[in-house]
Amino acid sequence: MAAPGPADLQATVGDPSKVAHDAASVPNRDAVISRLADHPRLRHVVRNFAMQLPAKLQGMHDALGRTELNELAALAHWLKGAGGTVGYDELFEPARDLEAHARSGDVGAIADALRTLQSLVQRMVIPDATSAPAVSAERTPVTV
What we know:
By secondary structure, the protein is mostly helical. The chain contains five helices and two strands. Helix 2 runs antiparallel to helix 3, helix 3 runs antiparallel to helix 4 and helix 4 runs antiparallel to helix 5.
C-alpha cells in the first residue's frame, strides 16, 4: 500500500478557517490568549494578527496540497516569529516543528504539525477591538 500523499494528508488536518473570536467560545483552561491582549496600544496588532491567521493557515494547507514545501516552510517561519511577537507564545514550537518538517519533506509530520497548529488556532481568543482593555492586577502591562 502506498504512503498517503500531501493531498490525502491535507484533508486530515482540519478546517483552517475556524478561529475562536471571544473567550466565551473557548473553555477557559484551553484558551490560547496573547500575553499582549490587554495592552492598550498593542491589542489592535494582536487582533489583526489573529484575524489574518486563518488565511495564513489556508495558505499552508494550499502549499501542502501543491507539494510546495519551501512555501510551507516560509509560512511556518513567518508564524514562528510573528506569533511570538504578538504574544501567542504557544504557536512558536509547533510552527518551528512545521518549518523543520517542511524543509525535510516529512509529509506525515507536516500533517501532525498542521493539526496541532489548527487546534491552537481554534482555541485562540481574539481581543475585542471595541472594548477597553481589561488589565488584570496580576499582570504587569508591557510598555512601549
